[in-house]
Amino acid sequence: DVSLEWCLAQREWDVITMQQGSAKSGIADTSQPHLDELIAFVNQHKTNPDAPLAFFSSWRHHSTSGRDALMTHFEGDVLVMGEGVRYFMRDQIVPAGDFKWIIPASTAVENASTGYMGDGFFRDEVHLNGMGRVIAACTFYTSLFGKPIEKLGLEKTRDSYDAEYGVAGEEGISDTPGIDLSEEVRELIVAAANAA
User: Fold this and answer.
1) Rounded to whole angstroms, how far apart are CA atoms 177 and 81?
2) Is the pTM of this model over 0.90?
C-alpha cells in the first residue's frame, strides 16, 4: 500500500494532476466535501509549494457497458453519462478555482466517438485502447503546454502504432485501415479544445 502523502514526498513535482475515479465519473454528489479536502491535503503536503494543480477529466463508458454506475446513475445510457461528466466539470471542477489546467480528455474521447469509429477507442467497457490513449495523451499535452500536437511526430499509421505498442487485434482499431494519426488526432484535439 502506498499513501498519497508518500507519493507527494517522492519529488518536487512540477504539476500535480487529479481525476475522478471512472466509476464515479459524472456523479455530482461524489465530489464534495472530498474535493476540497483532497486539494487542501495536496497543497499541505506537496514538496514544491509552487506546483500547480490540474484536473484530468475522465470519460464516459463504452456504449455496451453494464457497469453499476452507468445503470444506477445514468439510466444505462452513455450519452446521459457523457452529459453528467460535462455538468460535473462545469458545476464542480471549474468553480473550485484551484486548478490551473482542466484537461478535457472526456470531451476529446466524446468527440472522437461521434465519428466513423464510434466506440472504437475503447478496449473494454471503461479503458481506452491504443488510439484512445493517444487522444487522451495529446489532450493532456496540448492542455498543459499549449503547443500544437504536430510537434509530437505522430506520423505513424494506426496499424504501425498498434503493432509497436502491442494493441494489435483490438476490435475497432486494427480492423480499421491505417490512417495518418497526426491528421486524425489533430482534428480530434482541436475539436476537444474548442468544446472545452
Assistant:
1) 30
2) no
